[in-house]
């Protein structure tokens, strides 16, 4: 196993080798991984020199030529464009290697989607996740309107809007159908304001027949939560991180995105509090239970890699970076697999936290405060999970024996 400092780079990229080695160390690469990256740089530089090329000529076409040469030379590792990403990213950041030109919208539909995205971001200032959702619905609708790469929007009418909704929502659940019609209303508002349609069609989108609070929240039981937590090997770095993530989800009922957004500055260890950034960009202070604090502190002290990011939870392997909400949900799914439990998403642990608080004697209002619900109606669904209390409210059936 060679050390990064022992790798010698000659040729056009030699002057950038020291800086690249420092960048790899800063981003958390192990000495062995950093050596591999530097050896790849050394081979790239030798190839450029032998071809009489400079660093500035290492565009995408040249990269493919180099990788083909590397395969022909008998190398068995680092043969894809993905392997070149760390080095090319560093060199592009220095302005040494040209950044690939951004490909402009190829079709009328793609051009409209780009305008719509800018409207959602700059005019409406929507959260990134909402923008992604609305753009997904926009792509579904616009693909149904495209004929020979051209959109037919000027003559769009209410009947065609209804036809799309019925076709798209028929196989979906109630929640998924609501997601579609909400995004479609937003798109139709934009199309009218932007002059792409002659009449406002937002009101033509039918409502989804669905009633709130008709079902029961699906939760993990107390024993199942214990199995999830026990599946984390806290002797390892991955185990300490996953244990802290699962503890926050199951004890405080945080959403996956809220766990991912937690910053080091959000924890007030002396006061025993943490700040949670929830929906609507609001901030709430929650008490930090001792077991939750111990789980997070264990990750911070004996697991979290040193990196430039301020988020509490990061990737364990280099390059280090913040976990996303999707990655937090992946932690839960992996724990389910290890525990032999059915695969459920992170939000189920939020339901489990609410259920346990109720069973411990908390009121619905108190549960709503911890979960940061805007309305008590949202919290009221959990009233149905405590069947013992519900039995005390049920009247005897007429004619039944007393």
Features:
402 residues, mainly alpha, DNA polymerase, domain 1, hpI Integrase, Chain A, 3 domains, three-stranded antiparallel beta sheet, 17 helices
Secondary structure blueprint with pairings:
Layout (H helix, E strand, L loop, with lengths): L16 H10 L4 H20 L9 H13 L12 H9 L14 H16 L4 H18 L12 H12 L4 H20 L28 H9 L6 H16 L3 H6 L5 E2 L4 E5 L5 E5 L2 H13 L22 H15 L7 H13 L4 H8 L4 H4 L7 H7 L9
Antiparallel strand pairs: 1-2, 2-3
Helix pairs in contact: 1-2, 5-6, 6-8, 9-10, 9-13, 10-12, 10-14, 14-15
Structure explained in plain terms:
The protein is 52% helix and 3% strand. The mean pLDDT is 86. With 402 residues, it is mostly helical. The protein has a three-stranded antiparallel sheet with strand order 1-2-3. The protein has three domains: 4-93; 108-204, Orthogonal Bundle (DNA polymerase, domain 1); 222-389, Orthogonal Bundle (hpI Integrase, Chain A). The chain has helices spanning 17-26, 31-50, 60-72, 85-93, 108-123, 128-145, 158-169, 174-193, 222-230, 237-252, 256-261, 290-302, 325-339, 347-359, 364-371, 376-379, 387-393, and strands at 267-268, 273-277, 283-287. It is flat. Strand 2 (273-277) and strand 3 (283-287) form a beta hairpin.
Write a short abstract of this structure.
Helices cover 52% and strands 3% of the residues.
């Amino acid at each position: 196993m060679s050390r990064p400092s022992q790798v010698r780079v000659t040729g056009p990229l030699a002057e950038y080798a020291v800086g690249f080695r420092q960048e790899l160390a800063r981003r958390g690469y192990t000495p062995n991984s950093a050596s591999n990256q530097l050896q790849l740089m050394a081979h790239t530089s030798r190839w450029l020199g032998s071809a009489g090329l400079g660093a500035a000529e290492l565009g995408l076409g040249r990269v493919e030529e180099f990788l083909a040469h590397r395969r022909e030379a008998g190398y068995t590792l680092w043969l894809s464009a993905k392997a070149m990403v760390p080095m090319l990213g560093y060199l592009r950041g220095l302005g040494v290697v040209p950044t690939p030109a951004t490909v402009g919208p190829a079709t009328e539909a793609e051009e409209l989607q780009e305008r719509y995205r800018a409207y959602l971001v700059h005019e409406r200032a929507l959260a990134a996740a909402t923008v992604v959702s609305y753009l997904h619905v926009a792509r579904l609708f616009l693909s149904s309107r495209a004929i020979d790469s051209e959109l037919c929007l000027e003559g769009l009418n209410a009947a065609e809007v209804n036809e799309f909704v019925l076709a798209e929502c028929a196989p979906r659940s109630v929640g998924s159908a609501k997601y579609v019609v909400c995004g479609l209303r937003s798109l139709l508002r934009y199309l009218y304001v932007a002059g792409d349609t002659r009449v406002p069609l937002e009101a033509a989108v039918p409502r989804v027949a669905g009633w709130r609070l008709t079902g029961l929240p699906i939760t993990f039981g107390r024993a199942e939560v214990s199995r999830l937590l026990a599946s984390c090997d806290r002797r390892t770095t991955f185990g300490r991180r996953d244990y802290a993530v699962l503890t926050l989800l199951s004890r405080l009922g945080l959403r996956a995105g809220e766990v991912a957004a937690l910053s080091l500055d959000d924890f007030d260890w002396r006061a025993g509090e943490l700040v949670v950034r929830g929906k609507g960009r609001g901030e709430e202070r929650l008490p930090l239970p001792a077991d939750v604090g111990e789980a997070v502190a264990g990750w911070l002290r004996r697991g979290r890699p040193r990196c430039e990011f301020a988020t509490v939870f990061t990737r364990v392997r280099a390059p280090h970076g913040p976990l996303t909400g999707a990655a937090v949900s992946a932690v839960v799914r992996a724990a389910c697999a290890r525990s032999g439990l059915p695969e459920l998403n992170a939000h189920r642990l939020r339901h489990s936290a609410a259920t346990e608080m109720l069973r411990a004697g908390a009121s619905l209002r108190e549960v709503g405060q911890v979960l940061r619900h805007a309305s008590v109606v949202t919290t009221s669904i959990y009233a149905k999970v405590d069947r013992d209390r519900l039995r005390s409210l049920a009247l005897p059936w007429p004619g039944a024996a007393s």
